[in-house]
Structure formats: structure tokens, C-alpha cells
Amino acid sequence: MTRPRVLVARAVFPEVVARLREHFDVEDNPSDIIYTPAELIARLQGKQGALTTGSERIGADLLAACPELRVVANMAVGYNNFDIAACNAAGVLATNTPDVLTETTADFGFALMMATARRMAESERFLRRGEWTRWAYDMFTGSDVHGAALGILGMGRIGQAIARRGALGFGMQVSYHNRSRLPAETEAELGARYVSKAELLAQADHLLLVLPYSADSHHAIGAAELAQMKPTATLTNIARGGIVDDAALAAALRAGRIAAAGLDVFEGEPAVHPDLLTLPNVVLTPHIASASLATRRAMAKLAADNLIAALTGGVAPTPINAAALLRPS
Length: 329
Ligand code: 8YV
Fold this sequence. Notes:
The protein is of the alpha/beta class. The protein contains 14 helices and twelve strands. Strands 8-7-6-9-10-11-12 form a seven-stranded parallel β-sheet, with helices on both faces. A five-stranded parallel β-sheet has the order 2-1-3-4-5, with helices on both faces. Strand 6 (149-153), helix 7 (157-170) and strand 7 (173-177) form a beta-alpha-beta unit. The chain is globular, with a radius of gyration of 22 Å. The chain binds 2-keto-D-gluconic acid (8YV).
């Protein structure tokens, strides 16, 4: 029997590629070129599987042009780069990497929120510029995190892990808004109160965005929502670019409509809205919330586990659309 052929679309840990080679004929990408859509289609010819990241878009055109493709394994929990309806229609299994990154990503979200509230990046730039010549009573005064009102928009696994940190570690009053409300016992365990989106915006001292990106969540935070927040509030986005209207956010930050923002994700990243780069009251990081070494290894391993199981007759551990594929058409 011929071995399945897979494409590893971006550079990943060599041991993960080596493990895939035990099962498959593997084309990898050690020089980490980001393939254009046409190159990706060309490289996927004759391949049954692909290990992808957020930079590869798997849509109807690609699936139509790659009829042998059976499994796409995303090395990410978010999968807005996949058209799941098109995968279902093509009978292609899509998988992601939930759970393994939850705590690491929550750590980073909390850290980014704290850095934003306490003006760490701004004050560090000041120090590096050699401008620190004396202490002053109001130098880089920010807002407290402990005891403050933490608002979480999107209450999946990562949102819940952030709620725990806020409620249990920092004595915060945690409110959340989500498409569906959590069971009462989960709310009690997290110490989190369900509120409307309008209430969340109005109450939060620190608002964290942890919801998936979709047409529904596009610009969930725009000028109108920013106008409902407290002028002293901070906004932290570790979810996806496009959930926040970056131009509206830059305008709100410039006008002092909100105090500060922490952003790990951007509309059109790796490009960053030029106005954000010029503002002092924003902490900018390059989409690294899941980037602890151990977690990135675990994500790559889980993506490989999914490919290996799905292409060798096993059951993929973390499928996105397995149920849809089993449904009779
Ligand atoms: C990834 C992420 O690093 O898991 C996600 O959804 O955003 C990050 O952990 C990124 O998507 C690359 O695949």
C-alpha cells in the first residue's frame, strides 16, 4: 500500500516532522515560506493531508482544486482560516488544537491586561529613551487590577481560565457575555456573572476579548462599543484581528475615550494599523499568546496526532467537523 502524502505548510518542530515521516511521505517547509493560495494548491496536489497554521486559508476553491485532500490539521485552536461548510461539502476532516494552549494563552491574556493597566510598555520605552531622571508622585500612574471589574467577552475555555485568574488570584469582580450562558454551577465555580454586552461594556474596568472570529464577531468592538466603555477602562484583545475595528480603537485611544489597550492580534496582521504604532497608551505584541515553548510543542504534536489518526484509520483526537462528516447527505 502506498503511504499517504502530507504537506506541512509552515516550519514546525523537526521532531514533529520526523514523527510524521514515520507514517507518511512528507513535504515540509523548513525555510518557512508563506505560500500564496496558488502555491498552496500546487503543493497540495496528490496530498491527502495538510498540517496548517493560521496563515493558510482552506476554502472552497482550494478544496475543489485538491480533490485528494482528506484531512486539514490546524496548529491553532481558532480556525477562522478554514471554511468549515466547504470542508463538510468536500468531505474533508478539519481538526484544531484546543485545550493544550488554554492555560498558556490565559496567562498571556492576563499579563497583557496587567501590562496595559500598569503602563509597563510605555514606561519601559521612557526608561530606554533615557528620560528617567527622577521620581514623581504621578509618574506612570495606571489603574489597579486587583479588586477591579474584569469583563470577559467570549467565555469558552480560555475565557474561563482568565476568569479563574481574576476571581481567585486577584479578587476581581468577573462579568462575562457569551452567545450561550454557562451552567449555574460553572458560573459559581468561576465566580463569574452573566451580563448583556451593553452591561459588560459599561461596567468593565478591564475588558478582555476571547471570542472566536466569524462574520458575527467582525467589529464586535467598534466606535459605538468603545463609546459605551468607561474612560478609565482598558481593552485587551488576544482573540483575533477583525473583532476590533482597529481604526476606531486608535481614534478612541487618541481621544482618551478609553485609557489604554493591549493587543496581541490585529486586522490584516502582520501589518499593524499605523495609528496604533504612534500611540503611547497601547501595548502591542506579535500574536504570541500561545507561545510558550512547551505549549507550541504540544500544539504541533496534537496537530500531528490528528493527521496520523485520521489518515491511518484511527479517530482524530480533536476534530472540528467529524459529526458533520458522519451525517448522511
Ligand atoms: C496560533 C492562535 O499561534 O491557536 C490559535 O487560535 O491564534 C495561536 O495559538 C496561531 O493561530 C497560528 O496557527
